[in-house]
Amino acid sequence: MPRLLTLTGVFVASLVIFLVWLMPAQPFVRKLDGVMLGEAPLQLHQIRGRIWQGEARWRWQGYRGELRWATRWRGLSPGLTLDVAGGGLELDGWAGVSPSAVTLRELALRVPLAEISRGMAEGQADGVVTGNIEHLRWHRRSGDVFASGALRYGGGQITWPPDGSARVPPLEGRLYTEDNVARLEIVDPQGTRLVDGEAGNGEAALRVYRAWPRLLGVSQGGSDSDVVFQVSQQL
Fold it and tell me: For residue 74, what are the β-bridge partners?
């Protein structure tokens, strides 16, 4: 009798695992269709594959592209490898979610600013931002954020209404962690800080220094370290 119960248990467990493995992605991924990102909904269609590995087409505002995912474990942590492409945007890396934290690892990105800024009333820019976020982790309960990585803007032309324009040199960005807070710093070729910000303890903040409008040729007087704009937001 114990042997029969053991065999029955193994059979039931194997059947459950098999059925879960064959679970189609459509019913689950479809729940993300219509999620608001900024001022526009994310649209997903042509969803194919299983929940563990599949692909879909996405559309957001005037942008569209492809999304592919596959389940991958990192140690004891389950997660998905993500590959997003469309409109010149390229993003791939690993994402994991647990009851206590959300984690991104080895996230490589390429963002063409001409596509992203197209149609923005505040102004447009060309050139490409590339980056590698080695590790980004947000703890749900404590609000602590850990980050490490680097960003780079290769330089380009920036325009703003009514007729402003400036040629911007290559810029470097650094992501790092200090006191359980993720910090971002962007500097010009001489190492002068243009923008910085942080995220942690339930709040995100961003500051722009006078060195940035001076780089654009629209600031006179004052010190490069003067804060000319800042904004904060609860996470």
Answer: 77
Average pLDDT, stretch 169-176? 96
The span from the first CA to the last CA of the chain, in angstroms, equals: 56
Residue 164 lies in a domain: no
Supply the range of the domain harboring residue 78: 24-88
pLDDT for res 9: 55
Q: Dihedrals φ, ψ of 13, to 5°?
A: -60, -45
Assess whether the previous peptide bond of 162 is cis (omega < 30° from 0): yes
State the pTM of this model.
Answer: 0.77
Does residue 148 contact residue 135 with C-beta atoms inside 8 Å? yes
Residue spans of beta strands (DSSP E) within the chain: 36-37, 40-50, 53-60, 63-74, 77-86, 89-97, 101-112, 124-125, 128-139, 145-153, 156-160, 164-168, 171-178, 181-187, 193-200, 203-209, 227-234
CATH of the domain at 52: 3.10.450
Whole-angstrom distance, CA of residue 152 vs CA of residue 191? 13
Beta bridge partners of 71: 80
Residue 158 near residue 113 (C-beta atoms within 8 A): no
Give the chain's domain count. Answer: 1
Residue 67 within any structural domain of the chain: yes
The predicted-structure confidence for 101-129, as pLDDT tens digits, reads as follows 888 899 999 999 888 777 777 888 999 99
